[in-house]
Amino acid sequence: MGKRIYVGNLSYNTTEGALRxxxxxxxxxxxxxxxxxxxxxxxxxxxxxxxxxxQAAQAAISALNGKSVDDREIKVNEAKPQADRDRRSDGGRxxxx
Length: 97
What we know:
- This protein has helices at 16-24, 54-64, and strands at 3-8, 29-36, 43-51, 68-69, 72-73, 75-78.
- It has 2 helices and 6 strands.
- It is α+β, with helices and mostly antiparallel strands.
- It is globular, with a radius of gyration of 15 Å.
- It has a 4-stranded antiparallel beta sheet with strand order 2-3-1-6, covered by helices on one side. Strands 4-5 form a two-stranded antiparallel sheet.
């Protein structure tokens, strides 16, 4: 299994194909997953790219973090496993009082 990369601050106009082209320069891509809103189907502005090797992933992270894509400065870093993220039982909402 390759290395999963988080790609954030994407323009809503950025396509999966554009990401494939961008990341292919740094090595073989296993998958690209654009995250969309489940109700509207609109992009949420981030994606995950899985590279075939750790070396390709590190090269892509180093080269692309902070790069301008579709007039947005993208954030590219190693994806954190779901279990490592802070999960709140209240869905991340805090009472206003």
